[in-house]
Design brief:
It is built from eight helices and seven strands; from the N terminus they run αβαβαβαββααβαβα. It is of the alpha/beta class. The chain has a seven-stranded parallel beta sheet with strand order 3-2-4-1-5-6-7, with helices on both faces. The radius of gyration is 17 Å and the shape is globular.
Length: about 220
């Protein structure tokens, strides 16, 4: 006998996601769900984003990890509010977890919340957190064939970041093939090729994010 649990679980999640989205809309807070494999550079990109945008926007971060608070400590060291969520083994964040985290933040004093999802290219794609957009990071060392192996995460992302491009000379990564595959999977995704280490094209990413924040403000005004 097959017990179908997926739909009830996702329906339960959607209820919290709708409430999260409504709450953040009322407060005028833009929410980004950032996904990637472990080691792709999520925290490094978040730190670079904070550095470039902190003079214009009030930012907070919700950190999702199976265990530890290593990344949250790094975020807090910049003076940025950070809420740690430890899933205890779950491979993704869920909207109910985000709802609890939002209660710990002063939303009236924020413009942007970045959610660093658990390192995984599969599970986070299924769960709506109430975000305004999903973005994902793929690092050069992971290989240009990852969109073929994990199409779902590329299909749900409004932005796709190719990170660690400073390592391109050392890996057999074909950028054109990668971009071609992403465009076939998701013609509407914006693709950024950047290096946090060198700073290359980080400003293009933060400008896109700034444009999204401003667009939401206009829609709410």
């Amino acid at each position: 006998m097959e017990i179908k649990l997926k739909k009830p679980v996702l329906d339960f999640n959607e209820g919290f996601a709708r409430e999260n989205k409504k709450l953040c809309k009322e407060q005028g807070v833009y929410v980004l769900d950032l996904m990637a494999s472990p080691g792709a550079g999520k925290t490094s990109l978040i730190l670079a984003t904070i550095e470039e945008l902190r003079s214009r926007y009030r930012i907070a971060v919700i950190e999702g990890d199976i265990a530890s608070d290593v990344d949250a400590v790094k975020i807090k060291a910049t003076g940025t509010p950070a809420i740690q969520i430890n899933t205890g083994g779950a491979c993704h964040l869920e909207a109910a977890m985000i709802a609890r985290a939002l209660k710990e933040l002063d939303l009236e004093q924020l413009d942007l919340i970045i959610i660093e999802n658990v390192g995984n290219l599969v599970c986070p794609t299924e769960f709506n957190l109430g975000e305004d957009a999903k973005a994902m990071i793929l690092s050069v060392p992971e290989g240009h064939d990852k969109p073929l192996k994990y199409p779902g995460v590329f299909q749900v992302s409004q932005a796709v970041v190719l990170s660690k491009v400073d390592t391109l000379p050392y890996f057999d990564f074909v950028v054109n093939e990668f971009k071609k595959t992403v465009e076939q999977l998701n013609p509407h995704a914006v693709i950024f090729s950047l290096s946090v280490k060198t700073g290359k094209n980080v400003s293009a990413w933060t400008q896109w994010l700034s444009d999204q924040i401003e667009e939401k403000k206009l829609c709410n005004s």
